[in-house]
Amino acid sequence: MKLVLFDVDGTLVNSQHEIAHAMNQGLHAAGLPEMEPAEILSIVGLSLPIAVARLLPGASAEMHERVVLGYREAFATARANGAVPPLYPGALDCLDALASLDHVLLGIATGKPMRGLTALLEAHGLTGRFFTRQTADGHPSKPHPAMLESALFDAGLGPEDAVMVGDTVFDIEMARAAGMTAFGVDWGYHPTADLHAAGAALVALDYPSLTQALMDWAKLEHAA
After folding, report:
1. What's the pLDDT tens digit per position in 162-209?
2. pTM of the model
3. What is the CATH number of the domain that holds 20?
4. Looking at 39, 64, 80, which one is the last position of a domain?
5. Which domain holds residue 104?
6. Could you say which of 26, 53, 80 is where a domain stops?
7. What percent of the chain has pLDDT over 90?
8. PANTHER family from the xrefs (predicted)?
9. What percent of the chain has pLDDT over 70?
10. Burial 92-129 (b: 16+ CB within 10 A, else e)
């Protein structure tokens, strides 16, 4: 068996507007000025408390917590109002192609909490697609490899039999720390050059090219 793990925000779904809005709502609730979307998106992939601390290095722990709470409330309100970040074009085709290989398992490794991930998968009809789901709940933030180590344990596989797909250097660094191959995508939130520098084996320019690379990897690894 082989395991393909996906990041979510910036990789499977285009959630940049929801994330930027929720973070600015959290900042506003804490009495702080809003930030530019690019600055906010630079920390996507980290667990929320870690992300807020990186955005506000000079603020107190109490201020961090107020922003975190405001972010969560804004996201919950948006979800209750029916806001669902869209899948990137080609994402579903990629999942379908990999699912057609009977020796490939699919998984998720995300900085989102399990509740948010579950709601997102349900909204897109993807609940049964992923063999393992690793989230920020109970794990250190990326790039710590704990999420990937748990996914490998679930699948009964070694890191040589798995690949991590993500859009941030945190994803790539996490995969490398776990001894796993890392594929980057250039439609997400970190520059392509940074993904290469972090150790990505490749950076796909679109979902068709990612799908082909993953199919080739799975078939080559299976043959080996």
Report:
1. 999 999 999 999 999 999 999 999 999 999 999 999 999 999 999 999
2. 0.93
3. 1.10.150
4. 80
5. 2-14+85-223
6. 80
7. 92
8. HYDROLASE-RELATED, PHOSPHOGLYCOLATE PHOSPHATASE
9. 98
10. bebbebbeeeeebbbbbbbbbbeebbebbbeebebeeb
